[in-house]
Amino acid sequence: MQQAEEYLQYQIQNGVCGKVMTDEQVEELRKQIVAYASISEQLAELHKSMSAHHDFTGIRLGNLYCDPISASVGHKITARQRWTPTALQLQILENIYEQGTGTPSKQKIKEIASELAQHGLISETNVYNWFQNRRARSKRKSQPSSVSVNGEAEARPEGVGAKDKRTKQVISDSSDNTGNGAESFYFQNSDTGIDQFIGKMEMSRGYDLYSNLVDQFGMLG
Amino acid sequence: MQQAEEYLQYQIQNGVCGKVMTDEQVEELRKQIVAYASISEQLAELHKSMSAHHDFTGIRLGNLYCDPISASVGHKITARQRWTPTALQLQILENIYEQGTGTPSKQKIKEIASELAQHGLISETNVYNWFQNRRARSKRKSQPSSVSVNGEAEARPEGVGAKDKRTKQVISDSSDNTGNGAESFYFQNSDTGIDQFIGKMEMSRGYDLYSNLVDQFGMLG
DNA sequence: TCTTTATGAATGAACG
DNA sequence: CGTTCATTCATAAAGA
């Protein structure tokens, strides 16, 4: 076996039998390629959509959304692919939710995610968010603090009082932007939009992907 | 040698030593990747130049948000309860954050707040909270597996040794109510927004490319 | 079309 | 500092 090992190394280093990649490297490579394919597709689609109209009304770049309504012939471009629980996943989640004390627990989340993964694509973050939203919305619905008709502020249920602390930061600056809020203009959601992406692309400008690959994987001589 | 040959084959086929690619395959792969990288960059550049002269997105007037779509039928303006950094403020904050000034520092906070105040309403508490959240969430995100798409990686000198690279997103059966059962990958997190694009990889194109790769190179178990 | 509803995700702020 | 809460954003689906 020792001999075989050496032979293998020899083969590899001399390129006799090609390049060897570890599974991790293959995985990494695969993801990169798929990512580029996706990006190309997205950008191509976006560009096509934009080029089709000289009037860009209704197009949002912030989140890569093109409103089919505002744009005369616009395509709908969706950048975000939100996770959606499958029926099975939802059922399991509801089950756990009702049984548990509402506390997710880091470890628990992991377990749940693993279990749900057998029924569809899912991530721990998804599970976390689900519980977060589930709890929050359940709570909100249970105490909607019905607005009383009389002028007096409605009596709020106990516990809600503490809530006021959270919203004490009141911004009453409307006067500032009534007439000339020009300096406040900015693109919505610039942190999740294409602009950010492009910025990143620029950062890697002049950066040879291929070279990077070679360095990373040491594939070519 | 015969034995070594067999051993090599065994190793390869069982993934013990990874996958082997011929030079031709590597070259093919290289071309594909470079092509995609090029396309992505060009399209991004094109798009950038096009969008440079137009404002398609929703705008915020101080703390008022106006949805561009709603605007087509009547401006829907809602008042904000919480402070939200303007684009300029955010940019400055990110800058400061990336420069590794990991520690807030009371005095520093004051300075930053003063500077940011020139670009919109802000308080020291806001700045403090922002850094707190920024750090916490960045750290949290570095823990679960993340896929770096070329230049998207680096930065974020979190200092936290993010080592665990295990894929948390599990691939399983195609029973998904979204309709596209061919999806394979979905990369969570990444605070640059590129994940929005990558999420698109669930689309058939990405999958096909991947399948093609697998077929072509016989990689992946 | 435009509005409403439901819900995954993002995030400022508060808590322990 | 790490978690958790409350609110808001973004969107798909369903109404009207």
TrEMBL record, chains A, B:
Subcellular location, principal: nucleus
Highest taxon of source: Eukaryota
Pfam families tied to this protein: Homeodomain
Biased composition (Basic and acidic residues): 153-164
Region annotated Disordered, chain positions: 139-186
Nucleus recorded as keyword: yes
Keyword check for Nucleus: yes
Subcellular location: Nucleus
Keywords, alphabetical: DNA-binding, Homeobox, Nucleus
Polar residues: bias regions: 169-186
DNA-binding region extent: 78-142
InterPro entries noted in UniProt: HD (IPR001356), Homeodomain-like_sf (IPR009057), WOX13-like (IPR044559)
Residue span, Homeobox domain: 76-141
PROSITE patterns tied to this protein: HOMEOBOX_2 (PS50071)
PANTHER family: WUSCHEL-RELATED HOMEOBOX 13, WUSCHEL-RELATED HOMEOBOX 8-LIKE
Annotated protein name in UniProt: Homeobox domain-containing protein
Species per Swiss-Prot/TrEMBL record: Hibiscus sabdariffa
